[in-house]
Amino acid sequence: xxxxxxxxxxxxxxxxIILPHIHPDGDTLGSALALKNALSSLExxxxxxxxxxxxxxxxxLLDDKDIMSTSSFLSLQANPDxxxxxxSSDVDRLGSRVSLLNxxxxxxxxxxxxxxxxYGKYNLVDENASSCGEIVYKIIKELGITINKSxxxxxxxxxxxxxxxxxxxxxxxxxxRIAADLVEVGIDKMRIITELYQNRPIHKIRLLTxxxxxxxxxxxxKLSVMTIPLKVFDKNNTHPSEADGIIEYGRDIEGVDVxxxxxELEPNNIKxxxxxxxxxxxxxxxxxxxxxxxxxxxxxxxxxxxENAKKTIIEAxxxxxxxxxx
Length: 326
Description:
It is a single chain. By secondary structure, the chain is an alpha/beta fold. 36% of the residues lie in helices and 18% in strands. The chain has twelve helices and twelve strands. It has helices at 4-10, 26-40, 70-75, 132-142, 149-162, 173-185, 189-197, 202-212, 230-235, 247-251, 282-287, 306-320, and strands at residues 15-19, 45-49, 67-68, 82-86, 107-111, 122-125, 216-218, 223-228, 258-266, 269-276, 292-293, 297-302. The strands form two sheets. Strands 3-2-1-4-5-6 form a six-stranded parallel sheet. A six-stranded mixed sheet has the order 7-8-9-10-12-11.
């Protein structure tokens, strides 16, 4: 159940900004689009503000009017009376758009990460939800808004991408019940699956090949590590956001407990992703580096060279977490 307070915060707003997180994935983008569609039916003027490139497998969700840049929004001089952040555990996940939070004190933080810092005036954080999309689904239902095919498709993308096509441990019975409701609305499930998972451009396959060539195995096969330097992204004409999913190849190796992928976003700015297979809590590990996330999927940023960042991560696992494997 969504509290009456949260529902009343959303109702009656004239201008709403929705902020997905930087380097958008299916959950943050699907949640934002679902909210925009739903709140527009309440006669709110809704803007999704995002400056990042959209991953190629998510572009099918958008039309030209769905998202606008920060500069385009500011040029409208439209003062919002509510800002909603989706799937962002802290304000760093908003990037430079954090300045938009100064436009109003009414900030609603919707998230499902247990490392959320509760930075909003209002906070709807459910760490038991499979995805932000699952929370958004409940909000829309509680508001009495009809879930049309577009909203259903957006939320289905959120659920599917954040549960690994419903195979991760965050897939609860309620998650599957919601997915069934969305299918019953009449979404084109096969098109969604094809666009998300079966239409990879060749440059992403070449990027995967280069990433796999860096694969290292440590601690008797329990830890896998891959790196993607900036020059590899440039060589393949790809953006770091297009490396989503590569880390799973390291995690899925027999015997591996934890997989690490280091992506060089710019010189001395390394995004580190962690995935675990069994009981290893990578959110605690990421938190020790100023990051966060979920028990089995988390990340952090290290401001150093990619080689030094890799050495630091490998050594930290040795010192603090998996001495038993050495």
